[in-house]
Design goal:
By secondary structure, this protein is an alpha+beta fold. Helices cover about 25% and strands about 30% of the residues. The chain has 2 domains: about 110 residues, 2-Layer Sandwich (D-amino Acid Aminotransferase, Chain A, domain 1), CATH 3.30.470.10; about 160 residues, D-amino Acid Aminotransferase, Chain A, domain 2 (Alpha-Beta Barrel). The longest helix has 15 residues. The protein binds 4'-deoxy-4'-aminopyridoxal-5'-phosphate.
């Protein structure tokens, strides 16, 4: 399956029914399109089972709460809709995108209480997010954009509006031949990449930014648990950019990125070391159900 994302074969689940893929449309006066009133999830199914499916559905509804949007469906209904979509699409290994948004309605100003909230679920095949970086380590730019304070925006939500600076950061990175950008936060600490969390290794210990102003990824939490189970010390703390000079290994985590080794961030270099390879391999086994969750 290839081509433009609005012109593919198959179906998309929209508000309780399947519609042909190319007909899953919204009106230009959709509130979300003007004011970013949209939240979403990115999930992956492995062998027919979505990894941490329920956690993703719960996070979607938490994101709705954070944006003052009523829940369009319950967690159980979303779970059933995701499973039905995968089945209808005949997919077992796929990326799953659930999206909730304020539609068009009687309101066209900033306030939108009278406009309905919709839900759509689409699935497609999506390979390695960073191409061949899994083997040799991704190259990252350092973004000029800073992750905002939680007093500026609901930073714990997986909300469309938070990705505006991510798209700009990634465009700038790609123009320099990098596959992503590392973003600092509003205080100048290391935060995360544009769609993935970051981890560093120094002398056998792991350091990762405290998730106090960006998405506390489900993969991030999973990987922290895996490391602690292995007896590896994980330090969740504020990290100064200059500390990267002393870090030996680095990787990114995310549903799309899975565990991707990083070889370079700006002028800082990292080796694709043993712990990085081990965690990437262990994560792969875990999501495929080859080891107990
Ligand atoms: N940060 C951002 C900005 C993201 O978009 C994602 C991907 N959802 C992540 C972190 C990682 O989150 P998760 O592990 O839940 O996919």
């Amino acid at each position: 399956m290839a081509g433009a994302y609005d012109d593919r074969e198959g179906v998309i689940w929209m508000d309780g029914a399947f519609v042909p893929w190319s007909e899953a449309k919204v009106h230009v006066l959709t509130h979300a399109l003007h004011y970013a009133s949209a939240v979403f999830e990115g999930e992956r199914a492995y062998g027919g089972k979505i990894f941490k499916s329920r956690e993703h559905s719960e996070r979607l509804l938490t994101s709705c709460d954070l944006l003052d949007m009523p829940h369009p469906y319950s967690v159980d209904e979303i779970e059933a809709a995701k499973a039905a979509t995968l089945e209808k699409m005949g997919m077992t290994d796929a990326y799953v995108r659930a999206l909730a948004w304020r539609g068009s309605g009687e309101d066209m100003g900033v306030a939108a209480k009278r406009n309905p909230v919709h839900l759509a679920i689409a699935t497609w095949e999506w390979g390695a997010y960073y191409g061949d970086a899994k083997m040799k380590g991704a190259k990252l730019d350092i973004s000029k954009w800073k992750r905002p304070s939680p007093e500026t925006i609901p930073s714990a939500a997986k909300a469309a509006g938070l990705y505006m600076i991510c798209t700009m950061s990634k465009h700038a990175a790609e123009a320099k031949g990098c596959s992503d950008a590392l973003m600092m936060d509003y205080r100048g600490y290391v935060a995360e990449a544009t769609g993935a969390n970051v981890f560093f290794v120094k002398d056998g210990e792991v350091h990762t930014p405290e998730a106090d102003c960006f998405l506390n990824g489900i993969t991030r939490q999973t990987v922290i648990g895996m490391l602690r189970d292995k007896g590896v010390r994980v330090n969740e703390r504020h990290i100064e950019p200059g500390e990267m000079a002393d870090f030996q290994q680095c990787w990114l985590t995310g549903t799309a990125a899975e565990v991707t080794p990083v070889g370079q961030i700006g002028d800082y270099n990292f080796e694709v070391g043993e712990l990085t390879r081990e965690i990437a391999g262990d994560y792969e086994k875990l999501v495929r159900g080859l080891v107990p969750a």
